Amino acid sequence: MKNFTFKINENNYSAKILSHEDNIIDIEVNGTSYSVKMKEDIKTKKTPTFVRTPSKSSAEPVKIKSTSTKTTITAPIPGVVFILNVKVGDVIKENDQVMILEAMKMENSIAAEKGGTVTAVHVAVGQQVLQGDVMIEIE
Question: Where is the Lipoyl-binding domain (predicted)?
Fold first, then answer.
């Protein structure tokens, strides 16, 4: 199987592994055969291979029905309110543009996720908002 050469205390040794089964190894050193029993079994480590299978479900977004009739529009990113298109009492439809938020020198259009009546506006033009701040409430 494998041949090795060792030098121990200025003496040369030639070793040849003849067989290896479980924890028993037959070895020949300088022409003399030995059967060596290992203390414990040699365990081979197997690295798992993960294979991702394609999803069988459709790629349509999941729609969650809310029991509450109140909806809030929150800031998706930190920025400054550039244009405010609604005021309290306005009736809006789904996907109507309610405001423009300026962030990183870009104007980001903020649309209503659902229609309804604007019940509260918590921001004003020029006001800075942080990500997650509630800006508008719709009922």
Answer: 61-139
